[in-house]
């Protein structure tokens, strides 16, 4: 864990190094991923089965790539009723927030007699990648599938690796609640390839979303352009801004909730009180003694944890904007005032009773958020990821007479004579008429 | 030029080949681009100058990378007044349409006493790539810069290659009208690298937009993740749906307006009348005799032009959706009826007096549009490209009591105990209070 203070003479240098460290996501798996993509594109199901056999220790055949409806129903039925109800609470709240996001079309005629419009339409088919093994989270299924359904996507194809053939009942129950029925037991770069290019069993999709490991992220990067993708997900991170009036244990648990995700996860505390900072650090150490995932969490906290001591909250705003965190908790008396100054963050959690875990599960907004400082330019998953815009222009003779001549002048200036003629031929015809 | 008819026995096969041909954008420049990016990242301005010297035949030094204000003013002043006025007409209409796009924030408290919000904020810094040489179009400068300004981006850095050191007065005049003052005389993958990673002269940006050649497109693909990018632009394309009541010459000119862009551009006519199709084909050939860019346009028309004869307009809707064209002209009596069935298109031009050239210059909607069938999942440039969303969740004790327990159950089921504790510790404290 690093300790910084804005009063340190070396603060700027140390903070810049911190920023640079988090934003340089280097990948060394480009070549093996390229080989897998090429192979799946060429050999389809056969390649998909070969890689699944090799990487997931699962002897797959084309006819068992898809998890059939009976398997889904049987596994989902094993989930205890209280968990099904918790998933339903989450699903209802996620669906409701994403419905509120839905944008409106534009349609108006302006003073030049030109009618302009912008229409939002859903994608036809979306691929959802759900990480396998210990990171197969049912909450991720809801967070990825429900915005697509709210957007009106008619086909959602889900891929989830099943190492050793073991199905995850919670993931399948979440899929059931989210209305996803097309599910394949494949993962890794090979699953991304199948979704992007299609195989005999898996029809190609238009966009692939969902978090994954370095191979999945690189595969998404490589198929980008052929299909759409969401942001490349890196390790998760939280910035917690807290004054001394907080319970140090609450803050410590929130930091650890981030740290327990992944050894590379980053938990950052920003506070104006050195004594409180020490109390939180002590509480983290205390909780680590009993936390089940202490091995992961302590590695994350030791290697990537940061405590930044600031002079005042204005400084904290500035430091936070430079970090552009995926998650930001504001545990202050007037959290809205602080949040108003934040320009870059994936999601903000306001108040002393609103830990990030609320947003991970049941808040309603999406928990798939921009990592590695990409909140500077990227946003969390939303209905917008599953919609695209078509603009429309309608001009009749009146509109063309008014705006056409400027178009002719610009087309001629750009040396695009057919462009100019396509306008001027019509304008000439109209002049002939009048 | 290919002729297809939906009544052909081989139509499905030929049409599928056509689709596949346009969507498989293979790039062979990944390795040289990777080398350039690495070099610029390591050596900054020195590498930028070296590549500019080599590729643009321009002996650049760090102090001449930026085009100074005097140069911009002097070059812009050379543009004739009528063209300045035409640029102003275009700028006003583009700005007005993009203002209408601006989305609204969300903020509401729901029945669980949870306050949810979604805020749109502009990016801090955007890089605009403007192609050089013969493809340095002032209209592109307006189309890229104005949405960023409307979104509220405070810094716009423009890169335009200037082969042989020649400045393009129209491009600089357009930049002036769009309020862009930070302009660099560099292009290619090296310019993308400078914008993404920064050099001593060019501060890094958060997102890079604008069309470019294969090197620029590949460079954008490779820096994606470190910065945001817009869609990878491929060759331009138009689909024109026209009945026999159109002037064949108008349709021919519209096809050629697409074909004159680029040898790889694609112009497609869909009609229900074989005699009219022949008339258009004849008119294309006639116009090619005098068109200044006939060499480019005839290569495009010969190699990529397509005429598709359909039985009826329902078939035309279906064929158009599968093509997912960048531009769609609907030259029918009730174009809105036809357009209502279109699910995938970048921009639609409605009516017999609304050629695509209207939208290229003065319509208002953006002319930077998704190519190569990516309108299936992508959209034209807009204010949305320069904004990102931050979601907010605020819960007090009441809200946490209502939704917290479901979160605890899900966190425990996912094996994330610190997540569960961060909720349950607060819930326990609240129980103790009451």
UniProtKB/TrEMBL annotation, chains A, B:
Q: Where is the active site?
A: 326 (proton acceptor), 327 (proton acceptor)
**Top-rank taxon, per record:** Bacteria
Pathway given in the UniProt record: Amino-acid biosynthesis; L-histidine biosynthesis; L-histidine from 5-phospho-alpha-D-ribose 1-diphosphate: step 9/9
Question: What GO terms are given for molecular function?
Answer: histidinol dehydrogenase activity; NAD binding; zinc ion binding
Q: List the GO biological process terms.
A: L-histidine biosynthetic process
The chemistry this enzyme catalyses reads:
L-histidinol + 2 NAD(+) + H2O = L-histidine + 2 NADH + 3 H(+)
| Alphabetized Pfam families for the sequence | Histidinol_dh (PF00815)
Q: Where is Zn(2+) annotated to bind? A: 258, 261, 360, 419
Q: Which keywords has UniProt assigned to this entry? A: Amino-acid biosynthesis, Histidine biosynthesis, Metal-binding, NAD, Oxidoreductase, Zinc
Does this UniProt record's set of keywords contain Transferase?
no
Q: Enumerate the residues binding substrate.
A: 236, 258, 261, 327, 360, 414, 419
What cofactors does this protein use?
Answer: Zn(2+)
Q: Name one GO cellular component term.
A: cytosol
Cross-referenced NCBIfam families: hisD
What is the stated purpose of this protein?
Catalyzes the sequential NAD-dependent oxidations of L-histidinol to L-histidinaldehyde and then to L-histidine.
The name of this protein is Histidinol dehydrogenase
């Amino acid at each position: 864990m690093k300790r910084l203070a804005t009063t340190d003479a070396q603060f700027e240098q140390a903070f810049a190094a911190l920023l640079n460290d988090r934003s340089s996501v280097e990948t060394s798996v480009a070549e093996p991923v390229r080989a897998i993509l090429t192979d799946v594109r060429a050999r389809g199901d056969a390649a998909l089965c070969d890689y699944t056999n090799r990487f997931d220790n699962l002897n797959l055949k084309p006819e068992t790539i898809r998890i059939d409806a009976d398997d889904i129903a049987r596994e989902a039925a094993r989930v205890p009723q209280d968990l099904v109800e918790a998933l339903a609470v989450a699903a209802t709240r996620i669906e409701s927030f994403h419905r509120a996001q839905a944008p409106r079309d534009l349609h108006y005629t302006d003073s030049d007699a030109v009618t302009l419009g912008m229409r939002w339409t859903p994608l036809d088919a979306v691929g959802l990648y759900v990480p396998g093994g210990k990171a197969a989270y049912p909450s991720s299924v809801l967070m990825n599938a429900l915005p697509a359904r709210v957007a009106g996507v008619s086909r959602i194809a889900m891929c989830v690796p099943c190492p050793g053939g073991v199905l995850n009942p919670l993931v399948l129950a979440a899929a059931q609640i989210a209305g996803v029925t097309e599910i394949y037991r494949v993962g890794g770069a090979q699953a991304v390839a199948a979704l992007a290019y299609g195989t005999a069993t898996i029809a190609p999709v238009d966009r692939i979303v969902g978090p994954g490991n370095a191979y999945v992220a690189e595969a998404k990067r490589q198929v980008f352009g052929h299909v759409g993708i969401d942001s490349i997900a890196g390790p998760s991170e939280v910035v917690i801004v807290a004054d001394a009036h907080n319970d140090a244990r609450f803050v410590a648990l929130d930091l650890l909730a981030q740290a327990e995700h992944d050894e590379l996860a980053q938990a950052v505390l920003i506070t104006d009180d050195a004594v409180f900072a020490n109390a939180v650090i002590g509480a983290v150490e205390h909780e680590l003694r009993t936390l089940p995932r202490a091995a992961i969490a302590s590695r994350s906290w030791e290697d990537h944890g940061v405590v930044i001591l600031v002079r005042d909250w204005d400084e904290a705003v500035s430091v936070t904007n430079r970090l552009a965190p995926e998650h930001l908790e504001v545990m202050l008396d007037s959290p809205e005032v602080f949040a108003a100054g934040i320009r870059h963050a994936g999601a903000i959690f306001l108040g002393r009773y609103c830990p990030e875990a609320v947003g991970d599960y049941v808040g309603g907004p999406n928990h798939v958020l921009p990592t590695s400082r990409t909140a500077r330019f990227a946003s969390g998953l939303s209905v917008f990821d599953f919609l695209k815009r078509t603009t429309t222009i309608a001009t009749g003779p009146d509109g063309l007479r008014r705006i056409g001549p400027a178009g002719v002048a610009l087309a001629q200036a750009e040396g695009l004579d057919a462009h100019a003629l396509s306008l001027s031929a019509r304008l000439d015809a109209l002049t002939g008429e009048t």
